[in-house]
Design a protein that fits this description.
By secondary structure, the protein is mainly alpha-helical. The protein has helices at residues 2-15, 23-28, 30-33, 39-45, 77-87, 92-95, 113-122, 143-160, 168-171, 175-178, 184-190, 209-212, 221-260, 271-281, 287-291; strands at 20-22, 51-55, 58-61, 165-167, 195-198, 205-208. The longest helix has 40 residues, at 221-260. This is Protein ROOT PRIMORDIUM defective.
Length: 292
């Protein structure tokens, strides 16, 4: 798990404008990323050969200006692009900068929609782990390419999370460090085929649509543990009353046994409620059957 946490933090730093990220932004997404509560000490300070604390709230990559190792990784979407290129025999022109699109049922498509989508899928952009001196509209090749880079970074951030979802407000804390200074809500709503936004519970959540469509969600260790804990909690809530009734029934039987013995306990009294439970439930058999 520690190695996974190191990779995630390093990837976030590799997507940043200058190899530096405010620790506050990572801390807000700690649970979504599956990082330990003390990640600053147990991950960042422990791996001083990779990370360096500039001050109490800023962490940077040690090898940012020394080598290109920080940029040797590729975004998760590249796996999908390679699969599309290999299995569907699509040209590199069609897949090199494309994203998986899964539109919601009933989405209204205005005239010219498909053509604009096709052009956007083919549009080149500065990918999340590619270095640029200054991330601006001009250096990224215009507004559309600048926004597509922001889509790519948000897509990659969501891929790094355990459940492929996060609060939009928490994403906003990465805007300056990752060079995605756009209106995140408008950008996410602009791409309903890639992102799904939920406002349930007065909290704006963004989900990676491709992961939840057609049941292709891939679990991981942290996700499985969380689901098991949730199941245990729900099980406790459902059975609390039943357990309480069983305990009260057991206490009543014990009290009856005490009264029968003249106010005191005797050896073997504990067997009485057990035998009574067998005789009451019958369990589909009797002791003779068991002996035979």
């Amino acid at each position: 798990m520690e190695d996974v946490s190191v990779i995630k933090i390093r990837r976030i730093l590799s997507m940043s404008v200058n190899g530096k990220v405010h620790l506050h932004a990572i801390r807000l997404m700690r649970r979504e990323l599956g990082l330990p509560e003390d990640f600053r000490e147990s991950i960042i300070r422990k791996h001083s050969e990779i990370f360096r604390m500039i001050d109490l709230e800023i962490v940077e990559l040690v090898d940012w200006n020394e080598s290109e190792r920080a940029f040797s990784c590729s975004a998760e979407v590249e796996k999908w692009r390679e699969k599309e290129f290999r299995e569907k025999w699509l040209s590199e022109f069609e897949t090199k900068y494309a994203f998986p699109i899964n539109f919601p049922t009933g989405l209204k498509k205005v005239p010219g929609f498909r053509e604009r989508l096709r052009n956007w899928q083919r549009l080149s952009y500065v990918k999340p782990y590619e270095r640029v001196e200054k991330v601006r509209v001009r250096t990224c090749g215009g507004v559309e390419r600048y926004e597509k880079r922001a889509v790519g970074i948000i897509h990659e951030l969501l891929c790094l999370t355990v459940e492929k979802m996060v609060e939009v407000e928490r994403l906003a804390h990465f805007r300056k460090d990752l060079g995605i200074e756009v209106n995140l809500r408008e950008l996410l709503l602009k791409h309903p085929g890639i992102f799904y936004i939920s406002t349930r519970g007065n909290t704006l959540m963004v989900f990676l649509r491709e992961v939840y469509s057609a049941g292709v969600f891939e679990t991981n260790m942290v996700y499985d543990v969380r689901r098991k804990m949730l199941e245990l909690l729900l099980l406790g809530c459902r059975n609390t009353r039943e357990f309480r009734e069983q305990e009260e029934a057991g206490e009543d039987r014990n009290d009856a046994a005490i009264d029968k013995n003249g106010g005191g306990r005797k050896d073997g009294d504990f067997v009485i409620p057990i035998l009574e439970s067998y005789s009451g439930n019958n369990h589909g058999c009797d002791f003779k059957d068991n002996v035979n």
